[in-house]
Fold this protein.
Amino acid sequence: MSTSRSWLRLAQALIVLGAVLTLIVAPAWALVGALLEGGPGGLAAALGSAAWTAIGGTLWTSAVAAVLAVGSGLAAAWLTERSSAPGRRWLRLGMLLPLALPAIVSAVGWADAYGPGGLLEALTGRGLPGLFSAAGMVAVMSATILPVPYALIAAGLATRGEPDLERAARASGAGPWTVFRTVTLPLLRPTLAVSTVLAFVLGVNAFDVPVVLGLPSGFATMTTGIYSDLVLSADPRAFERVLLLAGLLALLAGGVAFTADTFASGLPIGRTGSPPGAPYQRRRTSVPSMAAALLGWAWIGLASAGPLAALLLTALSRAVGVSPLPSHWTLRHFSAALGGSTVPALLHTLGLSLAAACLALLLGGLLVALPRGRLARLSGSLATVGLALPGSALAVAVLLAYGGSLRDSVAIILVAYLAKFWTLGHRPLAAAADRLPADLLRAARASGAGAVATVRTIVAPLLFPAVVAAWALVFLFSMHELTMSSLLYGPGNETLAVRVLDLQQLGDPTVTAALALILASLSAVALVPIGLIVGRGRPRRVDR
Amino acid sequence: LVAALIAAACGTSPAAAPLGSPVSGGGGTSQPTSTARASDLAASGFRGGPTTITLYTSVTQETVDAVVAGFAALTPGVTVRTFRAPTGQLAARIAADERSGGIDADLIWLSDPISMQPLEQEGRLLAWTPVAWAGLQDAYRTSAAFGTRILDMVIVAHQGLALMPSDWADLIDPAYADGVAFPDPAFAGSSLGVLGYFAATSGYGLDFYRRLKAAGAVQVQSPGDVVTGVAQGRYAVGITLAEAARTAISAGSPVVTVWPASGAIAVISPIAVVAASRQRAAAQAFVDYVLSAAGQRQIGRTGWQPIRPGSGGPLPGGPQVQPDWSRLYGQQAQLLQEYRAIFGG
């Protein structure tokens, strides 16, 4: 190994280590420090019986929602990447569509579409029963989480799948189910592990769906408990409870991530074959795949079209509660939504999201490229902790750690975004990259290719779908982020969150719905590339 | 305005007031103003070089902008930087500030007294008496925090109900079974005030909530959600902010406001000067402006009920009652726990 190469390795490890320290360890340390200020007695008192109920509620709802989301994400990914269903490209976009809406808006969209007095009830006389209950809450949570495991698994099928093996199995007489069970699924195991971790963490972190659908039936989760304590956090005891519950949440998610990472690292890896050809797909559309496609479209109708239609009607109607007839429609709310400080705020948010997406991807890439080992694994698990921390607590932690020097600057928001979304930039890459054929890399290096040329000609084409998925996930989550930026912004760098929360506080849902739809159409633009590229079952051949 | 804020963002000017003298009852720095009229105030209340003060607030943007613009027009030497966020985020920012070198604001202007009380109790706020307070009700102030607007919690009902409620007690009428919504007291100070009022008022008590629960009433997050749900027909009646109902009615939503016969529950939106402020004189001038007739008119003009009668804005539709905020603060944890035992969440 040449000296320059070992220097590069060292620099890379130092950057990752620095990022872990800056983005995760320092804010977490500040949080622990603030927590210990209250003394150990305060800690015990902070955890009442209500907290345990909330912890239990969070655990089971997130676990069930994660399993549901990953299961249906897998089914949807198989449908769009491996079946012969017609219109798969559009199905792909449809499956990702819920990502275009901020969580608060989709929660309200579900309630307005299917709840009492909602759209479905207006059309058919009855809504979906049990929507405002723990079961309804879990179902909607999994529906809003689903696009993330779906995107990861679809990218996984594109980068990890072994279409040649699948084809060989088919040729040897195995039925589609046997191929799926014995070839596709085992190869996807690391992707599924990563997807489950992310889905669980997103479930633990969910706030809006529990508030809109769970609160009316009195269902408690840790995030709703944290928010109510936050509102009362002028009381030091309430603030300590915020920090404590947030810390528990992070420990919980970190523990799950670490366990899963350790488990996944034990899975067999190492693909030595050449990159795959086109996936096995029947040319003619079969009846079962047609039926599956219909099911897919029905799902998209339920999970996206319904809530979107309800939101559109809210945004168009003169006032909330008037009958949704065209004579009651107005475009006034859209111009109101674009008025005030919306446009500059939107530009700030757009710039922040672009920067966060690029930097998170870069940091994710550096982390993925670390030599496999304990350092890499621990860093990966730690990066997940940021996503698990509720935005309010993470923002407080960042303010405590960096408020002195970065207060009110764009940089402090960016630090918070990177801390929270680093793992979204890292995990999709990790899920795809550990099966990068080592032989190809060695061959390239042996043929005299430098590091840059190897990345450009071998790594980039093979990982392209995962790179796009990771980038888009970070970008979309940053665009929709409401809590951290509204707590950290300073004069002159107001983000969209500041405007959205002001509108929300005014209590008129029509303008908020209009703004959400404008935001959703912008986000949909970012979805198109993932829809087109992520599941592209035909990575560019590198051995041409 | 944004450009001005950027320009002023990091500007600290020579301190106009002595640094952090201890908080004491009354006193504060003396104000030479002898009348509450805004023009006089601007002329004599603050004399200093160019100064920047920072305002932390949860008041809605339009109102803050109007008041700040009005103040700037009268007091050109003072630039006001505002940080606006919902109560939860704002409280968290203040709590983080306190643990890292002190509150980074000269003024705090909130939407409910319960979020202000602990700050005052721990000596973070300056005790003084604004000149402009002359003639206003002392029930609306503490030694450091001064009511600027009144938010009324009232009953909202869907239009054309066969039986309209007339007072709070009617909400447990079987006619509204499974059709009552109210804001979760744990999610906003104004909603907590409702719980505090009922819990301490004879004839209601926490038993009122048990009966509401038995009648199928549900908690939702915010007063705005109550109005939306009632307008959509999801609920028949609810407890909400008069302002939220007013906005919906003026837009044409099928809801009506019912002013409870025994009185709307009045929630004060208080403003206070931070004790450690280095720009105390400028901050006090701002408070005096907000309480003056001119400042109060800005509040009325942007749709809120000013504390000073005759300043425009919506008028109360009947009697008003106040929860005992000072008692409520001591009991809030206990009260919320008892409430959660009934409604969960």
Q: What stands out?
A: The two ends of chain A are 28 Å apart (CA to CA). The CA atoms of residues 45 and 479 of chain A lie 38 Å apart. The mean pLDDT of chain A is 84.
